[in-house]
Amino acid sequence: MTEIKHHAYLFDTTRCIDCRACMVACSVENNIDMDKTRIWVAGLGVTGTYPDLQRGTMVYHCMHCEHPDCMSACPVGAYTKAEDGPVTYNPDLCIGCRYCMNACPFGVPHFDYDKGIIEGAFIDKCTFCPQRIYNGQEPACVETCPTDALEYGDRKELIAKAHARIADHPDRYIDHVYGEFENGGTSYLILSHVPFNELGLPDLPETPINEVSEQVMEMTIPFALTWGAILTGVTVGVSAYNKKKEKNAAAGEKTEASK
Amino acid sequence: MKITLPKFLRIGWLPFTLIALMGIAFIVAMIRYTFGIGAISDLSYSYPWGFWISFDLFTGVVISSGGFLMAGTVYILRIKEFEPLLRPSVLTAFLGYIMVAVALLVDLGQPLRIWYMMIHWNGTSVLLEIGICVMLYLTVLAIEFAPVALEGFKLQKLAHLIHKFIMPFVILGVVLSTLHQSSLGSLLLIQPAKLHPLWWTPILPIMFFTSAISVGMAMIIFESSLSSRYFQRGLETHLLAKVAKGLPVALTIYGLLKFSELAVAGELGYLFTSGTMSVLFWAEILIGVITPIIWFSIKKNRESANGLLTGAVIVLVGLIFNRFNVSWFAVKHPDPLFYMPTFMSNVKYFPTLPEVAVSIGIFSAGILAFGLAAKYLPVFEDEHHAAHAGD
Q1: What ipTM is given for this predicted complex?
Q2: What is the spatial distance between Cα B52 and Cα B208, in angstroms, rounded to a whole number?
Q3: How many CB atoms are located within 10 Å of the residue B82 CB?
Q4: Looking at the domain assignment, is residue B270 inside a domain?
Q5: Is the same domain home to B29 and B138?
Q6: Which of A86, A152, B146, B170 would be B75's cystine partner, CB 3.0–4.6 Å?
Q7: Is B218 domain-assigned?
Q8: Per the confidence metrics, is the pTM higher than 0.80?
Q9: How many domains does chain B have?
Q10: Does B136 share its domain with B234?
Q11: What does each of the 391 residues of chain B score in pLDDT, given as a tens digit?
């Protein structure tokens, strides 16, 4: 295997046979319940009208965005984006506010709604199997996939591969690699034969959606200082004005009295 | 047979109801702490934020905005005639923020770690800014309210001492309020893919701040009116009339901003084409903006106790409705775990009874605390202000 500079996945809807082995593999590898698995398969059912019928399946887990919204939103910095791709979550910092779940346009982070205060309720999401990828193995879901619907590799190489596959079968695919540019790029890339919004993927701009809120946040401290200075100025000004008025009033009284 | 209760047990029906509601909320909260949030609420992977955030956080913070408005008016602009309204507003704000904090302790997955916000900072997070502002502002409000409490306990000297050094705290309080009232809007900036375009705009923070000012004014009228009825004391109608006169101005600015933003973004079409969303939007504008502008433009309504209260309630209903729209009704979450082809539209959230009971219980505690403070502390006693007026 060549050296991987930027870990990424490529998923091809046309190859997926809905066997859900990836879910089992994820559950086993990460020791989590099947109903809380970090990867999930959604069958689209039969679409189209007879005789042009189609079936599609979407395998879904963390998109490992290049500009993760969960990380931007997390107040305590529990999320990290590794330079080589994976977006990871640190339960030791999490306060359970669930803002990451709100922020994630893909609805990826899961939360322990069934845990009380003693066990502690945490977020759960795909970790990119660091215990495997940094030891030269593929992530559990990819290794298990019998049809190579899920592939793992370097992001650039996978994008090239995806475009080559579209070029080879222009009749089979929509001419777009989802995740190449969406939300500033993701490390989970998707090839599809049906429009991406039918797979439940949101239409996202190429600029990361957290850009707006991050710009607003940058203005916070300068704004606070300016506003504080203005208010102090007003306070001093009003108080000086009042004093002057009192003085004038007093002086006026004096002159009145001396008359 | 006639049963007579000992004197300390003879409380009115209102305090009794409030205490009962608090008890229910306490039991529900204990269930939540034992079995998890899922045991009592309808919150899900798709709807991580629900009634608690819309009501306790968004509504709780916005109805507490009267505190900084009055503090700014009386201390910074030195408009002394509003002084009788200052203490009740600061008290409402103080209690309001305590209620927000308590509610968050129920909503957070790790309530014992709430203080992590003080040491682990992620500078890009709007929620961090809100957390820090709320914590600091709660401290400021405690300091602003301290003289009242101290006077109540006959510690006049200490009260005077705090009063002497109050200015920096007032300024800090106004700055913090401006920041987090607007930041609650910024909180939703990260959801352009989920929040309906009628509400999502890059100027959400400005919208939130302008509407918070209107809510603050309405709240001042509302709490003064209610407490004057309950405690059978005089109502500062002439002062409230002045506040009411400001409301149409503030609301007009808010409404104009809202529509001009839609026009600039080229989203005016959504006003009529978004089905339920259009209806929600128009309901919000009609109740919260247009009706009160007309209502308070009529002099008769501004100068009668009933007119003032009715108008204030209309403003509150409309603008609180706005907070619910922005944080809940107009937000569509994907449900990637159990989704169907119509992905973005078939996820439902509806608050459960226990969920609402928690909020009602916390709110009841706030009302009870307000009542007790108003009864035993010099919150409404105008003669006390005379001593401070000339500081």
Answers
A1: 0.90
A2: 19
A3: 18
A4: yes
A5: yes
A6: B170
A7: yes
A8: yes
A9: 2
A10: no
A11: 566 666 666 678 888 999 999 999 999 999 999 999 989 998 888 888 999 999 999 999 999 999 999 999 999 999 888 888 899 999 999 999 999 999 999 999 999 999 999 999 999 999 999 999 999 999 999 999 999 999 888 888 898 898 889 999 999 999 999 999 999 999 999 999 889 999 999 999 999 999 999 999 999 999 888 888 877 777 788 889 999 999 999 999 999 999 999 999 998 988 998 888 999 999 999 999 999 999 999 999 998 999 999 999 999 999 999 999 999 999 887 655 444 333 333 467 889 999 999 999 999 999 999 989 988 888 886 544 444 443 3
Sort strands A54-60 and A123-124 into parallel, antiparallel or unpaired.
unpaired
Question: How many angstroms separate the CA atoms of A109 and A99, rounded?
Answer: 10
Q: Establish if A99 touches chain B: CB-CB under 8 angstroms.
A: yes
Residue of A213, A219, A234, A246 best to disrupt the B interface, most CBs of B under 10 A: A213
| Contact residues, chain B, for A74 at CB < 8 Å | 122, 125, 127
Q: Give the chain B residue whose CA is nearest to the CA of A211.
A: B190
Q: Please give the residue range of the domain that contains residue B300.
A: 191-329
Q: Are residues B282 and B360 in the same domain?
A: no
Facing B190 at nearest CB: one of A47, A72, A121: A72
CA distance A137 to chain B (A): 27
Neighbours of B100 (CB within 10 A): 22
Angle at A168 between CA A164 and CA A173, to 5 degrees: 90
Backbone phi and psi for residue B68, each to the nearest 5 degrees, phi listed first: -75, -30
